[in-house]
Write a structure and sequence with these properties.
Strand order of the largest sheet: 1-4
Number of helices: 9
Structural class: mainly alpha
Radius of gyration: 21 Å
Largest sheet: 2 strands, antiparallel
Shape: globular
Helix content: 40-55%
């Protein structure tokens, strides 16, 4: 009777995701694994506000509770711990890259376990497992070739990891995930800056990435990259060297003014990104004691 009641309870549990009938073939170890796909509709995703760092929050529903759509954007092979954005699984064709990723499979797992011990890649993913998958992906892209535009993808993954670990900290306080979130915000700053440098010196065509997110609800494009680079510098940039900080903030202010046409007509860039760029410009001006806007 107890078993029957348990089965009935499990059947009534509202589904958030399903397992695709099509297997995914890992390009590194050539093993097949299952793809978990998030269901949509029926009130699963109740859009909330947009944060300054362009993160779309979702309100919890009475039926499904709190969900995290971002965690379903990553695939992770449970055999070799290679994790990628789903669209990149067919693009890892370089043999040297494949060999390197295979050789570092245990190293990736060990590094992820240092922050997310006992993560599981085989069952329906939780926020915790999703965070582990994103970190696996960050480590995976570090060893891919420039054709995959790994630097900008690493920036996006780091920023998403900062969001997700902040959520994890709220669910599991006193496990230092607030500190982990800060670390990933600073990693995001590093990668966003590097992506812009790579674009400038043409070592990696960052601007060619089709979807720059950073979240999954809207693509803010290269304008979003410039804005986020400035925002992260303002919020998470180093503060030990004041002159260097002011120099970087001044550069960010100039870049944001140029991209968004602040001080001029900005009708061609309407919407929330323009308003957030204006707000950031004002904050930069205030810190630089240069209120000329």
């Amino acid at each position: 009777m107890a078993a029957s009641s348990k089965n009935t309870s499990e059947k009534k549990k509202p589904a958030i995701s399903y397992w695709s009938k099509e297997k995914v073939t890992c390009p590194v170890c050539n093993k097949n694994f299952d793809r978990e796909v998030m269901l949509s509709g029926n009130g699963r995703m109740i859009a909330g506000g947009l944060s300054d760092d362009l993160h779309r929050t979702f309100e919890p529903s009475a039926k499904f509770g709190r969900i995290f759509p971002l965690i379903y954007e990553i695939g992770a092979c449970p055999n070799c711990n290679t994790a990628l954005l789903w669209g990149d699984y067919k693009d890892i064709k370089n043999k040297d890259v494949q060999n390197t990723l295979f050789q570092k499979r245990d190293e990736r797992k060990k590094k992820v376990e240092a922050i997310f011990p006992h993560f599981n890649l085989k069952h329906e993913r939780s926020l915790y497992d999703g965070c582990a998958m994103y970190y696996l992906a960050l480590l995976t892209y570090a060893d891919t070739n420039k054709e995959l535009i790994p630097t900008l993808k690493s920036a996006i993954l780091s920023l998403r990891l900062a969001w997700l670990t902040r959520e994890l900290d709220m669910m599991c306080p006193e496990h230092n995930y607030d500190y982990v979130s800060q670390v990933f915000y600073r990693k995001a700053l590093f990668y966003y800056q590097q992506a812009i440098y790579n674009e400038t010196d043409r070592t990696e065509k960052s601007s060619a990435l089709a979807n720059m997110g950073p979240d999954m609800d809207k693509n803010y494009g290269w304008d979003g990259v410039i804005y986020l680079c400035g925002l992260l510098e303002y919020t998470y940039g180093q503060q030990d060297d004041l002159q260097l900080r002011l120099k970087k903030l001044a550069e960010s202010k100039t870049a944001i003014a140029r991209i968004f046409g602040l001080g001029k007509s900005s009708k061609d860039k309407p919407g929330p990104l323009l308003e957030k760029a204006r707000d950031l410009y004002d904050k930069l001006s205030k810190e630089l004691n240069d209120d000329d806007f």
